[in-house]
Amino acid sequence: MRHTLLLMLMGLQFQMLLAQKPPITPAWALGHIVWEDSMNTTSGAERLVEGYLQRDIPVDAIIIDSPWSTSYNDFTWDRSRYANPDKMIKGFGKRGVRTILWLTGCVNERCKDTPLQKGATYDEVAALNYGVNNNQPFEWWKGYGMHIDFTNADATRWWYRQLDKVFKGNVSGWKVDQGEKYLPDKFQTSKGEMSNEEFRHYYYDAMYDYAVSRKKDGIIIARPYSHQEGLTASVDKMNMGWCGDFTGNWEGLRQQIDNIYRSSQSGYGAVGCEVGGFYFARSNAKQFARYTQFGCMTACMINGGENGAFTSHLPWWHGQDVEAIYRECVVLMKRLTPYKFSTLVDAHLHGGSLLKNTNMEEESHQVGNDIFTKAITSDDDHVAFHLPADGEWIDHLTGERYQGGTLITKTYPLDNFPLFIRSGAIIPTYDPINKKRVLFRIYPDGKSTRTFHLPKSDGIDYYDCTVSFDEQQQRFTLVADRAIDAIVTIGDKSIRAKGKKIDTVIK
Known about the structure:
Blueprint: H1 2-19, E1 32-35, H2 42-53, E2 61-64, H3 85-94, E3 98-103, E4 106-111, H4 122-128, H5 132-135, E5 138-140, E6 143-147, H6 153-163, E7 171-176, E8 186-189, E9 192-195, H7 196-214, E10 219-222, E11 225-226, E12 230-231, E13 240-241, H8 250-265, E14 273-275, H9 285-295, E15 301-303, H10 320-335, H11 337-350, E16 355-359, E17 364-367, E18 371-374, E19 382-386, E20 392-395, E21 401-403, E22 407-411, E23 419-422, E24 426-430, E25 438-442, E26 447-455, E27 462-470, E28 475-490, E29 493-505
Parallel strand pairs: 1-2, 1-15, 2-3, 3-7, 7-10, 10-13, 14-15, 25-28
Antiparallel strand pairs: 4-6, 5-6, 8-9, 11-12, 16-17, 17-18, 18-23, 19-22, 20-21, 20-23, 24-25, 26-27, 27-28, 28-29
Helix pairs in contact: 9-10
């Protein structure tokens, strides 16, 4: 009876999530985010970013993970680790790399790995009664302290003032980690007794509201569905998902795929992949490459962890072949930003996720409506999977066409993975030479029409664009809300056209 009731409650929560619509994820966040959890210093952060950039691997943001403050969570930089944080952050910004800071909702009396045991604001929180459970401290994985009561509007405003000390300049988001997980199943809040499950939403919602109120294009990276806690952040208050804490081996990759798919099925819009996992088993070369190939077909690749931040998490550590695979995957992911962004705007307007038609058993999914992929999660490189049932699908590498529902059995070399495009698709991508120019890749199949919500810049603003292609007449038409600089490509033929309205024949 108890088991049946639990399943009913979970089903109700799932239906409530599906009724929510995800926010728009800024275009800049649909890329490559790196971090390290070994040195936790300026030199470590700069060394990491430089390692990627000097190898022509783009980096969109770096997470400064714990420990970076003098105590948890006092938002005062530990100058023994980060002597001049403003200079470091500004330096990253000059290279097009944003900064994301880690936090939890706890203030500590005792800390695991910071210069100060007791935070400067600890007594103030207690005096103001801003902690949950009547300010009762508790053990969590970074020490012993109180959790801010985010049901209390005054406590939340006070917390925001603490965040204001560091959320400036090129700092563009927060990695919002678990502190609430270690609280009791039920505890007292300003709204009375509340379950841990219900309280989570106040915490994560408050962090999202802060980020986007201070910077329209700000983000929080938070857990959607996680094997650790189940459903965590609110669908409508989370613009980048990170399931968190996996191993770097096949088992970790398979578990992460499960978490990402469950998140997408629950209505979360943008969910990224923690490439190489976080702890325990480290990826070998093949595992790391397959992690990367799956990751580039999600919303975001987030790469870093305590299991080898400066060894197995670095693509060049595995050799030139894996480095080349990683670079190609990052470039592919970034070029697909307009397509992914448009899909996420559509999810914001109507509900849904970037990842569609997720198949747990076959570990396959669609990215939007017109791209399909299958993860490779074993040493033998051999896979068997079915293409989506509807339409005709084109092998991205060979150009071979297959009817929907076809069973594909194939062995893929390390530098390739299952990637198919729907026949009739029109895929908007960034032009690799000029990001302000949109490249439309057309896969002809009679007459095709698509409407896209294309990013105006790196943020959340967009304009609508409807494009059509008539295969018989080889005619391309476009109607947009603003003038557009476009390159249209069909096979080895391409043309360039500009304007709010375009009507041209591709010869």
